[in-house]
Amino acid sequence: MEALLTVENLRVTFPTSRGPVDVVRGISFSLGRERLGIVGESGSGKSMTGRSILRLIRPPGVVSADRLTFAGTDLLRQSEKAMRAIRGARISMVMQDPKFSLNPVMTVGEQIAEALVAHQKLARREIRKRVYDMLEAVRISEPERVARLYPHEVSGGMGQRIMIAMMLIPEPDLLIADEPTSALDVSVQAKVLHIIDDLVKRRGMGFIFISHDLNLMSSYCDRILVMNSGLVVEECRAGELRDARHPYTRALIAAVPRIDESRDELPVLDRATWAAP
Fold first, then answer.
1. Taking the model in full, what pTM does it have?
2. In a 10 Å sphere around its CB, with 0-12 CB exposed, 13-18 middle and 19+ buried, how is residue 31 labelled?
């Protein structure tokens, strides 16, 4: 499979009073037109990895890599103007919570259209049609009515679907979803992830799914990277996650509660034991 994204020795560094600290510590991976999951605890470096691909780490943070290429383009050598042309048009990112990602003073339709207008020159009628079609694609009924609403007038699940519509309307080659269902209840989670999965498969996109939920990863990804303390400690096929061998991955799996739970206490990770070197 030809690589859509290639990452070699990626580091994200922040200065502190005790000296520079690497929050991502030299990770490497490649991605084709497939579904890749990045899983780990909070603070493991998952989100920083996703944001660094889009060059969204701002000073004083520093991103470095031996290689960071997307479809043959060296992302580290691109100017900020060139990156603005790539963000959204070719690589899109769904953030964690629509309440903080959507503009409260713009209607839903205006915000989705803005993502399209920024990268394509289309007639107003065509833009409006594309917005309605995209809302229908993420399974929102009455798209004309919803397009006139403001973010505070929609539910959390609908807000997340609107965010997905914004990111997908420019038809990117790569979608990065950072905890896209963390603010949703379980029933809505499944619906939103099924929509993303269906669109990714139908459009032949690359997909990076960032989460701490092992069960979601095994259901919606092809491959999984397990991160701990800024390092990738294990890589496996999603269907083989339960057979993972690294002690940290095994500890994560053991800490997941089960429907038929019989243990008096859930295991807790001993970070002194499982911490990455």
1. 0.87
2. buried
Q: Determine the residue type at 65.
A: A
What are the distances in angstroms from CA 103 to CA 107, 142, 176, 257? 8, 21, 20, 37
Half-sphere exposure of 91 (CA within 13 A, CB side): 23
Q: Going along 15-165, which residue ranges are E strands?
A: 21-31, 35-39, 62-64, 67-70, 73-74, 91-94
d(CA 254, CA 174): 32
Domain ranges of the chain: 1-90+174-241, 101-171
pLDDT in tens, 146-176: 999 999 999 877 888 888 888 888 889 999 9
On whether the 1-90+174-241 domain is CATH 3.40.50.300, my answer is yes
**pLDDT tens for residues 123-147?**
899 999 999 998 988 888 899 999 9
DSSP state of 87: B
In order of 113, 151, 166, the CA distances from 148 in angstroms are 12, 10, 15
Backbone torsions φ then ψ of 141, nearest 5 degrees: -75, 160
Kindly report, residue by residue over 231-276, the tens digit of the pLDDT.
999 999 998 988 888 888 888 888 888 778 788 887 777 665 555 5
Distant-in-sequence, close-in-space partners of 14: CB < 8 Å, separation ≥ 6 = 20, 21, 23, 60, 61, 62
pLDDT at 183 over 70: no
Among 161, 23, 166, 181, which residue's Cα sits nearest to residue 87? Answer: 166
